[in-house]
Amino acid sequence: MDETTALDQQSAPPLTGVRIVDLTSVIFGPLATATLANLGADVIKVESLEGDIMRYAGATRSPAMSTVFMNSNRGKRSIAMDLKSEAGQTALKKLIATADIFIHSMRHKAAERLSIAYNDVRAIKNDVIYCFACGFGSGGPYQDLPAYDDVIQAASGLASVAGAEGEPRLIRSIAADKIAGLYLTNALTTALLQQKLTGQGQYVEVPMMECLSHFVLTEHLAAASFDPPLDETEGHAGYERVTTASRRAYKTKDSYMALLPYTTGHWQRFFKLIGRDDMAGADWIADASRRSKRVSELYDIIGEIAPTRTTAEWVEAIRAIDIPVSAVSSMDDLLTDPQLQASGLFEYYDHPTEGRLRGLASPVRYSGFETMPAAAPGLGADTRAVLSELNYSEDEIDAMAENDVIDGI
């Protein structure tokens, strides 16, 4: 499809008209609902009067508007109110009655205290999609435990496989929240599809530990996939190619690179490049099964030869023979990376309170519609507007502000 045809066929984003009442915080839930906002959904972020804790994490220009918060809450509207108050409870129920999706990330007992357990919400709107974005799955012994990214990285095995020489290591990213957030995005869009096809709502539960364990074990279930084990030595989890200490970023003459010959052709071309015709012609190199069993040996050969050239020299030579390779990028390198510049990942926009900002555009492209990137909301910036949509009068809204049910805007 050429660009002209794609533009001619563009329509409104697919989630236009969908309303999501979002009581999630931090990154897990907010990342998912921000993705849906980018696809046209009206996401109303319900916050406490203090706001989402991520408003205060990382770089800030003004209070309660951190960059981490803004990058994970773009395109939403914020209503801030005291949900423990009777008036706050009433307003929330009125808001739920307008929702296609209701989502929260509180633990079971907290949800019950606020009367937002599944049966409470379904009694307000029978066809609602009720989503519980939790740390641990219901019914398990951990279901009532608190969960944040570091804990889930540890519990799911991610920290174990990220470590080296027997020492676990946390990935230097909010990886568990973001990976689980992608599972959550998929779950919400799937439930929405069924809702539109059948007119029925449902309960959806997305637990972080289970999602991350699923993510990790896709390859690392490995020999433990067989029940019973093939033999006494092959009953353990762990994909050897990935777990070997020989797999690493390779130190070159001036920096580091990642290099991965993978197919038979890759390895044969690589060995010819470095003058190892003996290896290029070896029978075991041409046999994927035999080669797999000696992968650590192969990676060590790369590690030994890597310091003989600069990273730029390696990248030029390796790309010339069509083998996957990359220099190791720093965070600052990404800001000027020519691929990201050309693909438009970074976009500049004006925020109503934070001024000129650099944000992240959707990395996914669609020919049928344009996504809807927008600014993240200030705390309670849309409280008055949303309450007005729920038919609250100006006097009623003022009274709620005076009684500290909502912020004073």
Walk me through this protein's architecture.
This protein has 409 residues and is an alpha/beta fold. It has two domains: 273 residues, Rossmann fold, CATH 3.40.50; 78 residues, 2-Layer Sandwich (formyl-coa transferase, domain 3), CATH 3.30.1540. The protein has 20 helices and eleven strands. Strands 3-2-1-4-5-6 form a six-stranded parallel β-sheet, with helices on both faces. Strands 7-8-9 form a three-stranded antiparallel β-sheet, covered by helices on one side. Strand 2, helix 3 and strand 3 form a beta-alpha-beta unit. The chain is elongated, with a radius of gyration of 26 Å. The chain starts with a helix and ends in a 7-residue tail after the last helix.
How would you sum up this structure in a few lines?
The protein is of the alpha/beta class. It contains 20 helices and 11 strands. The protein is elongated and about 85 Å long.
Key words describing this protein structure:
409 residues, alpha/beta, Rossmann fold, formyl-coa transferase, domain 3, 6-stranded parallel beta sheet, 3-stranded antiparallel beta sheet, 20 helices, 11 strands, 41% helix
Which structural category fits the helices and strands?
alpha/beta
Any low-confidence stretches, pLDDT <50, length ≥5?
none
Biggest beta-sheet profile = 6 strands, parallel
Looking at the structure, the CATH topology of the largest domain is: Rossmann fold
Question: Strand order of the main beta sheet, please?
Answer: 3-2-1-4-5-6
Computed over alpha carbons, the radius of gyration is 26 Å
Overall pLDDT score: 95
Name the CATH class of the largest domain.
Alpha Beta
Amount of beta strand: 5-15%
CATH architecture term of the largest domain: 3-Layer(aba) Sandwich
Q: What is the overall shape?
A: elongated
The CATH superfamily of the largest domain is known as Crotonobetainyl-coa:carnitine coa-transferase, domain 1
Q: Helical stretch count?
A: 20
Total individual domains? 2
**Distance, first to last CA:** 49 Å
Helix content: 40-55%
Q: How many beta-strand elements?
A: 11
